[in-house]
Structures
1.
Amino acid sequence: MSGGRYTGTVEDPVPEQMRAAAEAFLSALDDPARAAARHAFDDEPARRWLEYRPRPRPGVTLAGLDVTARKAAHRLLATALSPAAYAQAMAVMALEEVLDRAEDWRRGRHSGDYWVAVFGDPARDDDWAWRFEGHHLSVSMTVADDRVSPAPVFLGANPATVRHAGRPVSRPLGPEEDLARELLDALGPGGRSAAIIAEEAPADIISATRAAAPDRLDPLGVPRGRLRPTGRALLDRLVALYLDRLPPELAAREADRLDGGELHFAWAGPVEPGRRHYYRVQGEDLLIEYDNTTDDGNHAHTVLRRPAGDFGADVLAAHHAAAHPPGPVSPGAPR
């Protein structure tokens, strides 16, 4: 990402913060809860899990924990999110009570229906992971050799906007919509025609709950290189908005990784506010998706994914390469 906000190398305290918070969380649990929370690191189906709908899921639920353990769970989540993203996550969780009221309390939704799972032993293992997840919130972090791989990070909101007297009183994912609309407006007719890939938005984010995100979604939309300076700056700001869900050290590393690579922006659906719409940004090992397509455009999903690096695929590959380097090839040996 050229022209972004991050430069240079930042010392990363996040892995140790996560390790300490995960140990404190597990220590705060009683034996049955700890058994529910802990999973083997090589339990791939459980570790590579992504589910933002109200479903049963691996881990231990906040609703069954005492105040000390619940606070430890929140402190663990806070190690993975910036203050602003943590505030968004808290608003998303609180919306469960708002949605339950709107549904006449029929489904028993509640803000304690969020689950924490820890994979491996953060006190002893080089490779371990954790996840905090429930309806419209899924944050997965993988740690290998004290390096954090931060994806997927999903935030949704239903209702996306609650209004009173024509003004919003709750809109936790408003910046994600507003900045994309600002970019769309700045593209001009030519750029907008290249960016708008469909007259109707898809029913949901296309990566959905798959353990592996698509490497590429076509059409790509408009490339950053074709945009004018204002459009390029706004696209950079949009990517930075999603990277800023992470702590500064992780966001800086992700921005450095993207620096200089091409980005593409695509929009689907009408451009008028209040109608069902979708957009995505793609780059090298980057997929950002946003949709607001159900409940008449008042139910938003957003996700930050790394198709080649989700669930720690990148840091685990580096770890295994360092731990098991290829040996010398003997003369005459088959290659």
2.
Amino acid sequence: MTKPNNLQEMKIAIVTDSACDLEPEIIREYDIEVLPLHIIYHDREYRDRVDISPQEVYDSLEQEVPKTSLPAPAEIQAVFNRLREQNVTHVLALHLSSGLSGTYQAVSLFAQEFKDMIIEVVDTKTLSMGLGISVIEAARERRRSMDFEQVVATAKKTVQGIKAYYVLSTLEYLKKGGRIGYVAGTIGELLHLKPIISINEEGKYFTFSKVRGREQSLRKLKDVMLDHLKESMASIAIVHGGSEAEARDLEKIAREHPNTKELFFGQISPALGVHTGPGLVGLIVYPNS
């Protein structure tokens, strides 16, 4: 990284992608730049959460399972150009796992062209609100300190502490999208085994637990959350892909627990949802005191 040529007051920007699953009001509150991933159907293309909503994608999955792609090069360049025009001196870019998307690599490549800004691009090795909570914590540190090194350190510390767990209705969508990772070993098992998947240090999916049936898998997810909350205060995010009622049940338990420091709830990004399929319920935990 090269330092800005002219001496000026530090001005820090935070960039992420639409896989962060942050609600629009949070994005506005913390002044976060979001690069949209793309949803591609055979005859049209949409920007994730800009031109198409998660529910619209889930509602049409039976007709067509779209492809996804990373933000367009012109979109990445436009964001950095705009930040430069705003006299930003430092940029922290936090992106979804490089094990699941090429977004981190693409942003890293473009960042090299902007020599007049200090740009740190971080592969969070996670996705959804695992990425989202990391972005929020970095933005809060920016407000507190306006110290770029401290903002980066806070983001990386949060990334290291995040735990994510997902219950899926089927593994078929992960297989079709080539995102099966280390979950492949479960496919030959009895079909009524419902794995709870998580993300490893490489940023790829693996089987955290194999549970018999949907009801048992959701009960196991609840137990995992309660085990975390037994150990310490934690920020909790509950996400879903077309399974709001089941996700709300988990949210209610988290809301009533005294060790829930902060609670987020939302629908998973369409760019992620096309790979997990309808029926996802996810739990993201960030232990803190």
3.
Amino acid sequence: MIPTAPLILMIDDQPEELRQLADLLRLDYRLTSADSGHGGLQRAQALQPALILLDLNLPDMDGLATCGLLKADPLTAQIPVIFLSADNSPERRVQGLTRGGVDYIGKPFLPDEVQARVRVHLHLHQRLSRAEQGQQTSSETPARNPDELLVQGAVQYIRDNLAHLPSVADVARKIGLSEKRLLALFREHLGLTVSGFISDERVRTGQRLLGDTAMSIHDIASTVGFQNAGNFATAFRERFGVTPLAYRQTARDAATPNL
């Protein structure tokens, strides 16, 4: 492992599984670990890892909630999260991906699969990050204050209801705020309007589902709240510069090992 290798955060409360992951990855990456959701959040905020491997079953809060908080925090929102879980049902996989995970690996895991998926998602994240740099102000550390809990609550509600999202005023009422106050909090903490965040989240969730599921583009468009696949394709191309079909093919090609 070289000193400049990407840092990977492993969040799992099973020491044996942490050891297996460490043995598998330590030659190519720097590693750090946490055995709880809250501990993982703190380490992610402090260390800014390049990627997070997250167990679904944790002692304090489950991996879905942990991932939701990671994605709601501007400090950690851009870090790709790969779920590892013994619960490999289709429902759980879709839940993990729609909460913000970029991938979902079942346990017991295959070492070659873990290495390949880690490598692929680090590469994809680097490419997407370069495309997004013009929209981010990551050089400044965002202020931390109690209002962030309200923002996180609103963000989580939006993510959980993308398919049938009510108006911005209704979103504000759901978390006990006026529409004006919610708009002010989003501008202050995320640098976006609520509508702008919703539009961005729909396209980014669609991007994750394109790369990590076999769902049709029509079903993905419906899942993230677009009226039809054409509207989704237009928004996706404006955001990423490629069509959904082209992105899916690129993701699949990157995941296919060279023989």
4.
Amino acid sequence: MSTDSRGITRRAALGQIAAAAAFGATSLLVSAETTAGKSASAKATPGRLKQSLSRWTSKAPLPELCKRLQAIGFAGVDLLYPDEWSVVNDSGLSVSMGYPKLVSPDRRESFIAMGFNDPANHATLLKELEATIPLAKRAGVTNLITMFGNRKAGIDERAAVDNCVAGLSKIAPYAAENGITLCVELLNSKVDHHGYQGDHTAFGVAVMKGIGSPNVKLLYDIYHMQIMEGDVIRTIRDNIQWIGHFHTGGVPGRHEIDGTQELNYHAVAKAIADLNYQGFIAHEFMPAQPDPFASFAEAFQICTV
């Protein structure tokens, strides 16, 4: 992994030159060297959306990751365990989404498959959340992730919705009391998570309506929902009241959100910002470029609206 930041600087400088040409800004008669210098010394304008990066997308040590993301303009780091929260907080960034597990040795391999759709899982899931919610409150972490789970024989779609409503309704008041939002993730069952129950927005919205709590919302993963149903912008507009968090990723392949994939992420980001969305949009893709931080900086710019 290259940690050379010069590629990012060149990208920012070229972006400014292209922007000047596009808008006919003839008054921007600065040299390329001056432009590059300004880009290197100042982080990008954050725009209307708070952006973060999922921890698993980078192999960099967490303190280094925080430092470099902050320099780009990111506001947070996503998907972190409680024993990692203090590192991010100390860096000046926010933990935009936490896992409901205490420390590394306790991490469940079945995190995605084991969800609220099966009542047999409720005791374990509720115990985890009950233990983590007060930790999150003390650490200033306002979002915790949880899952709908994989389909189970003998549990049809309607029963799965009812089971999710019943289980999450038990923990919703405690989350509200502590100022925590539980975000239940929508995932694709076509490519990455075969058998996952919450694979369409309609399923997730049915659960949210059944619970009726502002402290339980959907984690709308744009990558996953583009694979399953498309029509992303209209779906987001129609259901924004049930959405508490966003993830990004290029389709196909889950790589950069640039012109190599099928979605116009700048348009998606603008649509989200136009809805006065106040939460985080977290980038969750596997960089294909040699320098992953160039990819992260590019994603930040694409979603700066």
